[in-house]
Each structure stands twice: as C-alpha cells, then as structure tokens.
Specification:
By secondary structure, the protein is α/β, with parallel strands linked by helices. About 35% of the residues lie in helices and about 15% in strands. The chain has two domains: about 160 residues, 3-Layer(aba) Sandwich (Rossmann fold), CATH 3.40.50; about 180 residues, Rossmann fold (3-Layer(aba) Sandwich).
C-alpha cells in the first residue's frame, strides 16, 4: 500500500505524524509532499522539518505540480489536511482522505467537506452528527483526534522549562492564539510585566510569524519575548503538544488549541475579545458570526472566560489555584468535540486505510 501525505503548511504535520508512525509498522510506502513559498528562510525550515521524518520527500512549486505528481503516482491513498480541488481527477487513480488540521470553532471545519474526499476522519460525536446532517452523501468516520495520541501515550518530545530559559518554580502560561480572529493586538504591551510571577510561553499560529499582513502581531510577540519570563516558539517549533506538556494553563481565543488542551484535562482561559478588520465590525458583524461555528459557545462552559485583557489576571489566578474546577465538563465536552482520547486514534485511521 502506498500513502502520500500532502503538507500544504508545516503545521499540518503534527496531525499526520502519529498516523505515519503506525503506518511504518505495516508494509507501507509513505511519501511526503511539501510546498515552496516566496520566503526562502521559511522554505529551508519546512524542508528541514520534513527531512527529519526520514521519509521520501518531494517539494513542489504549487498545487498543479502536486496534482501532476499524484496522478502519475497512483497511490492507494492521498491524505490532505484541508480542502483541495480536482478531486474527480484524483479519484480516477487514488482514494483520498481528509484529516482536518484542527478541531477549532471556525466554520471552515465544516465548509471543507463541500467537495467530499473518499473518507473524512472526524473527531467526536457532535462533529460527526453535524457533518452527516450537512453532507448526507459524505463518508465520515469518527476516529478521534490523532494529533493528541503522543501526549496521551507519553511519547511527546518535551522541553524542560530550564532549556527555554524559564523558571521551573513558577507556574507556566501557554498563550496560543490563532491568527484571525485574534486577541494578540488587544493584549497590553506590558503583558510579561503584568504576569511577572509566571512563565509565559508564546506559541502563535504559523501565519502570525510568516504572513506579512500579520506583521503587527509578530512585532508585539517579539517585543514580549525580550522579557526574561517569556519564551517565543519559532516557526520551526511547529508542534504545540511539546509546549502543552510543560504548561499549567492555556490562554487562547478562536483556536483548536482550546479543545486540545482541555482534552489533556488542563485548565483553559478563553480570550473572548478579538481585533477584527473593519469588514467584520458594525453592520458587517454577521461575517464574524459566519466565520465562527456554534462550538465557540461551548467555550463558555469549558473555559474561564476573559471578556477583555483586564479580566485576564483574575482568570489566570482562578485557573492556577483551581485546576480541577472544570474537570467533569472537560471530560464531557472532549467526548463530544474531540472524541475518544485513548491514544489509539491513529491506529483506527490506519485500520480503516488498510481495510479499504
């Protein structure tokens, strides 16, 4: 069996790696496809990360080149982390998989199934039911969220706080915002000083560090990183799980990270304030609501909610002092929106691929 993994962006890789590890235990040919960008430094980072897997690798210029390669290879399965075009052509020679790169509250979680792959692996009963209702002809399989398997199985490569230059006697806050809609630009410039009694690990979305349109976010993050109690993860440090393992509390906004950290039964603070473009404000507020699906309402139950930056301090204190306060809620919501957290999600994916 030959399986090709399409890696449009480096941050798709953590979702794939557990599945790749299980596939290696079988008689499987595995190939990775990466994409070049206009940023040569970024290209070097991506290629180095993909080469570290010690798997056959091809870097393509664009989707058309990838498509040509796929049609020639005639692999049994091609795995995607997002929606792609030309599925009808691909299905003439291969079967396709969608493993969505995140489980966050953005409506794109559902939109990407408008053009159906052969199978889409989904996470949890709620999402499975929603997708089946929206796309009755789709083939959806609840595998759980494979990305979390290494953390559940204690196989995550972690850092020590000391290796990041942080104080091992302090509680550690992990700030992992998304790129849009994001809370970053509504945080104070004094963020590190306001939380001087804590370590702060900054793990922004890949785009916050690589896309020119988010340069203000990058500037603010880099300014915070000058303080002794702050560590800013670089683009090459693409796996959020490594930082989740050594953090006590997650601070985030409209990000998959909230479901992921809660699934590890750790407290989450939801920043329910966002820097919105003018086209998403006022009479255009409906665009923001359209971008976010109903699962963000679950954050009210799952998280400590900070309505603005000033409210963050009290939320942090509550989360650090009472980490088990929302344990039962985290368990229930994880079952609905992330699925079984048993360390066997990747095995279920591979079992399906082999069987079919």
């Amino acid at each position: 069996m030959k399986v090709i993994f399409d890696i449009q962006h480096l941050y798709y890789l953590p979702q794939y790696l557990p599945v790749i590890d299980v596939l290696k235990q079988h008689d499987t040919d595995i190939e990775l496809i990466g994409y070049k960008t206009d940023d040569e430094d970024l290209n070097r980072i991506v290629e180095k990360a993909l080469q570290a897997t010690n798997l056959p690798l091809k870097i393509v210029q664009n989707w058309q080149e990838a498509l040509t390669h796929y049609l020639a290879q005639k692999a049994d399965w091609i795995v995607f982390g997002n929606a792609v075009s030309d599925l009808e052509q691909l299905h003439e020679v291969s079967k396709t998989v969608l493993m969505q790169h995140g489980v966050g509250p953005k409506s794109c979680y559902y939109d990407v199934s408008k053009n159906p792959t052969t199978v889409r692996f989904v996470e949890g009963e709620k999402r499975l039911g929603n997708l089946q209702a929206m796309f009755p002809s789709g083939n959806f399989v609840d595998s759980g969220y494979a990305k979390l398997d290494p953390a559940i199985n204690n196989q995550t490569a972690t850092r020590s706080l000391a290796s990041l230059g942080l104080d091992e006697t302090k509680p550690t806050l992990l700030y992992a915002p998304t790129f849009y809609p994001s809370s970053i630009e509504l945080f104070a410039k004094s963020f590190p000083d306001d939380f001087a009694n804590y370590n702060i690990i900054l793990k922004p979305h890949f785009f916050s560090l690589t896309k020119p349109r988010y340069k203000k976010q990058k500037a603010l993050l880099e300014n915070w990183a000058k303080q002794d109690n702050v560590y800013l993860a670089g683009v090459e440090e693409y796996n959020l799980l490594e930082f989740m393992a050594i953090s006590d509390v997650l601070i985030s906004d409209a990000s998959s990270a909230i479901f992921e950290f809660a699934a590890l039964d750790k407290p989450v603070i939801w920043c329910d304030f966002y820097k919105l473009r003018w086209s998403y404000r006022g009479i255009f507020a409906f665009r923001f609501k359209k971008r976010i699906d109903e699962s963000i309402e679950v954050f009210h139950q799952l998280c400590e909610r900070a309505a603005n930056y000033k409210a963050l301090a009290k939320c942090v204190t509550n989360a650090v002092e009472n980490p088990q306060a929302k344990h039962a809620i985290r368990v229930d919501i994880t079952k609905e929106y992330v699925g079984d957290v048993d360390g066997n999600c990747a095995q279920r994916v591979v079992d399906y691929l082999i069987k079919h």
